[in-house]
Amino acid sequence: MRAFLCSSFTWSLMGGFALGAIGVAAFHPSSAATAPTQSPTAIHRSL
Question: Which of 37, 40, 43, 47 is deepest in the core (most CB within 10 A)?
Answer without folding.
Answer: 43
